[in-house]
Each structure stands twice: as structure tokens, then as C-alpha cells.
Amino acid sequence: MKSFENKVAAVTGAGSGIGRALAYRLARQGCHLALADVNSEGLAETAAQARKLGVTVSETRVDVADREAVHAWAEQVVTDHGRVNLIFNNAGVAQSGSVEANDYADYEWIMNINFWGVVHGTKAFLPHLRASGEGHVVNVSSIFGVFAQPGMSAYNATKFAVRGFTEALRQELDIAGKGVSASCVHPGGIKTNIAKTARMNESMAALTGQETEQSREQFDQFLRTTPDKAAQVILRGVLRNNRRILIGADAWILDGMQRLMPTFYQRIVVGSMRLAARFAPKKARSAGAPAEQ
Q1: Which of 82, 186, 225, 273 is most solvent-facing, going by the fewest CB within 10 Å?
Q2: Residue 135 neighbours by CB under 8 Å, 6+ apart
Q3: Which among 288, 96, 271 has a CA at the least distance from the CA of 211?
Q4: Residues with catalytic roles
Q5: Residue 14 main-chain phi, psi, to 5 deg
Q6: CATH number for the domain including 48?
């Protein structure tokens, strides 16, 4: 894809963060938009601002975990816009807690959104991308789809799954050679509301040496890259047809560590977290006992 001008892009999670930034950058480049989110208020704000940039914008409240809803949205996008060239499967959530303390429901909740949401969006839109003659699937994973972290097993599982799914898809599309491609996006810390809205249980205190809210605040401090910068990098990667799109210096550093030390990096992470927990306040160290199942 050489340009976004006069293309039609569908974006999930468009009510805030990277999704909103993608919508604005695409609109400024003359790309028409089909926006979706579960947050109707945020979605409406994004759509209103994007329309001011002179492109056609449709908005639909969609829960990406709902397969039928996503497929219905894809059909509606083609009805509204006549075609669709890009799908940005961007919607996602976060959850933190040890494997022992997490409930099965935690894994099911995050998998339904972060992984199945990507599968639903890809399969619903792929036939329409082929029909357009020039299409691109953009699936948002995370640097934690490359680099695992203690207390992030649920999140890691979904983002590693998105990476594997998208890399297999990309190879299939390359073999088919019918004008459709795919990219997997691996953001580092992006300044969005993901830390504030993440589900965390008390087991994180035993891992990090901090109370749950302290962990949330510290995690938020590591979110350095702006959503607009992330959107800029993503769109540049799509135009270059990159297979993998890393965002932020932290993403590049962690990706490099994993490449140079495929398993040893885990020892470094464990050592640093043990050291942090050792010097943490006593109250935080004693918290986080596994929950009864």
C-alpha cells in the first residue's frame, strides 16, 4: 500500500489511546474511517473530531469479543463505505496477577478480547480486504508478545498468541499474493489508560514488593511514548509493509534482549524483581497470598 488517501480503514478501540490517534492520523491523510469501541462516549468524540478533518466517518459500538457483532460490523462497513482496505485490530485490555492467584475467569476475559477479538476482526474483514484489491491487516500485540514478565501470564499469553496468529497469517497472504498483507505491532509503554483500567489482584504485591495501587502507579510511569507517536510509527510500518512493527525505545531494548538472550533474560528479570521485593516495605512483602479457587 503506497498511500492511505481515499482508502477505507476500520479501527477497533477507537475511543481512546492508539485507536483514536490512528483515526486522526489516517483522516489527515484522506482515509475514510469506520470506527468501533465499547466506550460509546469516547467513540463519539473520536468520530466527531475525525469528521472535522474532511473524511467520511461511521461509528459503531462493538464488543470485539462478540463474534457475531464483529462480523455484522464488517458487513455494515462495506454497506456504508462501499469497500474496506484496512482493519486495525487494536482493542485490548490488561490483567496482572500470578498464575496461582489468577482465576480461570481472568484468563477467559482477557483472551476473549485480546486474542479472539483479533481473530474475529481478521476473519470478518479479510474477504472484504481481498475484494478491495489492496488491503492490510494490522494486529496490535505488545512487546510482551515477545518478552515475558512475571505477573503478566494472562496478558503475555494473549499477546504471544496475537504474534503467532499474525505471523502465520502474513505468510499465508504472501503465498496467496492477492494484494493483501499483514503486520504485527509490538508497542512498548504507551501513554494510554491501560494501566489505570487494568485488572490487578493482590498477588502482585508478593512479586513486585508493592501494594496493588503502587504497582499500578509505577507501571503508569513507564508509559513514555505518546499515542500519536505510536500511530505515526504504525502507519509508516504499514506503508513499508513491515512484518513486525516495534514502538518505543523500550520495545527495541527488550526485543534486543530477547534475541541476544532468548532464555537468560528471564533470570535477569527474576533477579531484579527479587531485589526490588527484598527492599520493599514489610506490608507489601507479606501481601499477595494466592487466592482460594
Answers
A1: 82
A2: 84, 85, 86, 126, 128, 129, 179, 180, 181
A3: 288
A4: 155
A5: -85, 0
A6: 3.40.50.720
Q: How many CB atoms lie within 10 A of CB 168?
A: 11
- Which of 194, 167, 187, 189 minimizes the C-alpha distance to 245? 187
Show the cell assigned to 173: 497472504
Sequence-distant (6+) residues with CB within 8 A of 55 are 27, 30, 31, 32, 33
pLDDT in tens, 16-70: 999 999 999 999 999 999 999 999 999 999 999 999 999 999 999 999 999 999 9
* 16 in Cβ contact with 192 (< 8 Å): yes
- The three-state secondary structure class of 243 is coil
* Residue 36 contacts residue 57 (beta carbons within 8 Å): no
Say if residues 203 and 151 touch (Cβ distance below 8 Å). Answer: yes
Which three cell numbers, joined as nine digits, stand for 176?
A: 496467496
> In this predicted structure, what is the pLDDT of residue 289?
36
Domain coverage including residue 90:
8-286
Give the DSSP letter of residue 248: S
Position 274 scores a pLDDT of 80
Number of domains into which the chain is organized: 1
Nearest to 35 by CA among 68, 84, 82, 105: 84
Q: Residue 219: pLDDT above 60?
A: no
Residue 165 is assigned to a structural domain of this protein: yes
Q: Please indicate, yes or no, if residue 144 is contained in any of the structural domains.
A: yes
Burial of 243 (0-12, 13-18, 19+ CB in 10 A): middle
Nearest 5°: the CA angle 152, 154, 155 is 65
Three cell numbers written together for 90: 487494536
- pLDDT given for residue 193 in this prediction: 72
Torsion of CA 216, 18, 129, 53, to 10 degrees: 160
Question: What pTM value is reported for the model?
Answer: 0.89
1 assigned to some structural domain = no
